[in-house]
Predict the 3D structure of the following.
Amino acid sequence: MGNTRAVRVAARPTGGEFVVGPQATSTRGERTAELASAPSSVTVARHLVRDDLRRRGLPSRVIEDALVVVTELVGNAVRHARPLRGANSSGVVILRWDATESQVRIDVTDGGGSKQPHVKPASLADTGGRGLAIVSAVASDWGVSSDSDRVTVFAVVSA
């Protein structure tokens, strides 16, 4: 059994309400953060992952690619999915990541949306809808798994 540690981070979204999150824990190499289902959580997620991957000594290109993936997956979960019920009854998304010398795996779990996450074709005039296409271009592998009340989108960034 590895060490487990918890970290509380507070973020104040632009809407004025105070959101406390995430509760980040780590066991061995895997980290888990329960993030408020709010736009401010994208920044919190990026900082958590960036700081952890830097501590692990991963190359900057791998860290930058992992942060692109975190931004897109957490952003999509916040914008398009139902939140999960968190420990304090508020709506959350769950971010998990793990890293080895050769790769970073990122998982984001939410309550699912009206459609299964997929890459959709975007025209030059579209102002959105490119998130999973970007993930697909940056990641060596990505996919979606779901059960009755949860959807997890994962991506692997290789060194």
Observations:
- Strands lie at 4-11, 19-27, 30-36, 84-85, 91-99, 103-110, 141-146, 151-158.
- The helical segments are 40-55, 60-80, 131-138.
